Amino acid sequence: MGLALVEKFSITKFVPTVLKERPGQRFIAREIAMLIMQQYPDACEDKRLRSKASKTPLDNDDALLQQIVAEIGAQRKRLEDRLDIKTTEERPRKYYYSTQSDTAEIEAVEKVSPLAGYDNQPTKLLEADLYPILSEFLFNELNIYSKRIDEKRSRKQYGPDGNKWLYPDLVGIEDLTSNWERAVIECVSASSETRTKLYSFEVKLLLNRSNVRECFFQTVSNSSWANFPYLVAAEVQGSDTLSELRVLSGTHGVGLIRLDPENPSESEILIPAKERTEIDWNSANRLAASSTDFTDYLNLVRQFYQTKDIRPQDWDYSGI
Fold this sequence. Notes:
It is a single chain. By secondary structure, the chain is α+β, with helices and mostly antiparallel strands. It folds into 2 domains: 11-99, Arc Repressor Mutant, subunit A (Orthogonal Bundle); 127-314, no CATH class. The chain has helices at residues 11-20, 29-39, 41-51, 61-74, 76-82, 102-107, 127-142, 182-190, 212-222, 239-252, 281-288, 292-307; strands at residues 27-28, 85-87, 94-97, 110-111, 123-124, 144-148, 170-175, 196-207, 228-236, 255-258, 268-271. Strand 8, helix 9 (212-222) and strand 9 form a beta-alpha-beta unit. Helix 2 crosses helix 4. The relative contact order is 0.12.
């Protein structure tokens, strides 16, 4: 009686198969490795036996698991480019299979919203849901007070989509003097030294290869007045997308924040913005000329300079 053939271990075969059997579900590499060990025990055992002749034998299940995790990471680009596996840029990175195009992914970002109540039913997370979450993150983690700018409230319309190129979604102020002694604050005020930094934020649910350049240059366009411009996304899909953003940011200085809607404190700055040392007041004037929201924001900045204090209740989130 002949010996049964053992299927050869293959990351590029096993990972797509495991994920295609679970379309839309997202897994970190360790979870995928565990599924592979469950579904292909003979191939995994053969891999372990073959390793005994190497310098790093896989003597136990944990060593085998770690090796499979490492191989998944090493093959990520091939999985993305040739085998229709999609990944996110969050940490830890998640892998999933989806038949939707990049454009369809943008139009239908489905997840459990932290704003949906307690029934834990999947609901479509809207971009507007991200604004208060971003405000909370900015205040708690970066000491930035923020305000919503609603482009629909503008007195002047610049075509069907023109306003999105003019107005950011949120603006903010960082009080550089928040931990300073009063005598230092008075001294800086008298010398006209800078006591604040102004921020601009453009918010998106998803960034991928299909929309990354448009979203980036929209941010460039509507943040030209600020000290620090940021593009914010709940999800950044694919390493190519992040690589493109790094190249563009190197030229234009726009930063990138990955916002975690379910746990805002876990959000992270993936690319720091480059500081513009001077405010472009001509650009700010253009926004103020037709947006009461932006005018209100400038009035709050002015009041801070006059009173040397920020009134927390005037901002969208202040922890009170």
